[in-house]
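Troubleshooting: if your tokenizer reports a length mismatch, compare your output against this known-good record of 796 residues.
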Amino acid sequence: MAHLLRLLGRLVVASLIGVAIVTIGVSYYIEFELPDINALNTVQLQVPLQIFTADNKLIATFGEKRRIPIPYNQLPDQLIQAVLATEDQRYFQHPGVDIPGLARAFLQLITTGRKSQGGSTITMQVARSFYLTRNKTFGRKLREILLALKIEHRLSKEKILELYMNKVFLGNRAYGVEAASEIYYGKHLYELSVDQFAMLAGLPKAPSTLNPLANPIAGKKRRDHVLTRMYELNYIDETTYNKALHAPLGAGYHDLQTEVKAPYIAELVRQQLEQMYGDSIYTDGFKVYTTIDPKLQDAANQSLFTGLLAYDQRHGYRGPERNLGIPSVTQMTLWEHLLGDIPVVNSLEPAAVVEMTGRSITVLRQDGSFATIAWDGLSWARKQINADYLGPRPHSAEQIVSLGDVVRIMPMPNGGWRLAQIPKAEAGIVTLNPQNGAILALVGGFDFQSSKFNRIVSAERQPGSSFKPFIYSAAFAKGYTLATVINDAPIIIENRSDNSLWRPQNDKHRFYGPTRLRDALSHSLNLVSIRLLDLIGVRYAMDYVLNFGFNKEKLPRDLSLALGTATVTPLQQAQAYAVFANGGYKIVPYVIDNIRNSQGQVIYQAKPLLACNGNKCIGIPDNARAQLAITPQNAFLVTSALHDVITLDNTTLPASAPHLSRHDISGKTGTTNNQVDAWFAGYNSNLVAVTWVGFDQNQSLHEYGVQAAFPMWVNFMSTVLKNVPEIPMEQPAGIVSVRIDPQTGKRAGTNDPIAMFEYFMADYVPDNDKQIEVQDPFAQPQPQQEQQEQQEQSLY
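Known-good structure output:
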């Protein structure tokens, strides 16, 4: 007996030693062989890049995984209850491993021979998602258990649950509960109801097949199971339970909520960030705050849309995109599917004509509903015969469309629908702050999904007459004045390379004789501009206009420079006009104000150079000031002349169009040869805006800038400047106002009845010794001048 007791004692001691060794071994393995879980306290989840406006409105999200991390204290209680009721009801009681749950899973394995996912706690799922694979092996399960114990020892229950809620995949590229809430319901978590919490809580089991979009029936069944578990655990009362059971799914696909439509800006920023930080921008949770003003961006979107459609419709209806045949009741479902495969282009919906009654038509929409288009939405559609000719005005719907035609429709502002078509021409609009270069709004084309080419920053086009102010500015720097008179008369220039003759014309093919430079610029007289460039010299003018930010390689080296045959982008044009707007300073356009990492730390902050003069420079260090490109006096003279352009161009607008009756606005139209490009560039002291219209593949618009681009610009400016006080440019020191004879440009006599006031730089008032006497080199060429011309041309 004593022998047996001694043997039993030895066995107990050996067992205890064995248990101790195993315990020590497991403890060692947990501590030193398993991954270090301290990093979970500062884990970097894969969070997509987000781009915002200046006032924190979301423009775009870039990244494969849609995730919006949310701290534990912002998780709704009912969502936590729904998750625990389904995934881990003893979560706050167990140490990371639920023994009863593991026992049930082991028993199922013995009885069925199948490995299941049962028995995994939320902590074990966190361990698996961060450190392990999803392979179902005993080794992985053991590591999962040990890791869970280690995690529970180091992290609080709240932190573990926060990690789970932000890491878990919930289908449709949604990672984490906040992203899933926005994708399935278009709402933030705090806006959801209990039945919607239950839907999200049920998704981790099979997110790709149980979500309400992929399988609404299975999704509802899973949601109801979660609600039942919540009711059984007394998380919700019977009334709430029954109400939630009968609630509709209410789910639909919502991309992460964007608040401002600015896809060309989003892509521009994405490209800049990729150059700065590489591919990590898609996963590191960067938040980029741009300079974009939502109000101005919305106005730019609408102005471009309205202006380009108006241009397109002035040139007639080109016909349907296709024809589906004769409509019948049995074909409506098929037609609906066919329409569903056609993309919506900038809110222009595809629709099929199913009925015509005199002066109205009925169309089938993509969603299966029907819309009626009355005559006021159809009557514009004169058939386009060719670019120069439209057919007769229609008197009935059947002269416009046929049954089965696939057309585009758009809602009208006052209700109802309008026939439309996708414009063939393109357009762009950009506006910036001339004081620091901040881009406030940018639209690079009619529809980003159809064409991602950003015409504002990438399209190099000829600016036409909108380039002339820079030539006149160069002349003012040489002593010419707004009162200088130059003859507007025919010019014939021989091209020595092929003996051809160049006979430039004014756009109206008229000649106005001796003309003051103010009138020549405001009326955009080509022949005066060419003579002026010839007088100041092409080489001098080329060097001078570089002060505005133009690329010398893109400037023609001959007198055609006066007519705007350089190639510039609309953004370069806006940058150049900012020099006039801010009183003479060269600013640099920028769109990224600051970048923050996932912890909210600023890792980049823009430091734009500021235009300042006089009192504006107080407190601004020298290294923060923009470079002076031209004198403030020069900028004032150009602005004064360009203000007259606004007055003149306003008279061309229809009475129903918005007009700009302000005294602080200046600008210039531009139209290139054969009307290929149409421009308007305009500004006041706080805003520069440039509009461009043209075809991507050069062809004539058959309209001038004042017809195609100016109305778009006016529409934009009248919107953004509504109720904004006028701020005329301050008259700088060194500018004087003198009465002159409008015919000669010289100082007027005391009793001259036709005298008018004109601005001058103080050193160049009429009758001053420095007043320039203008000779017409084309009317009376001198041998010395001819020799100088030949020398200049040989240089280029």
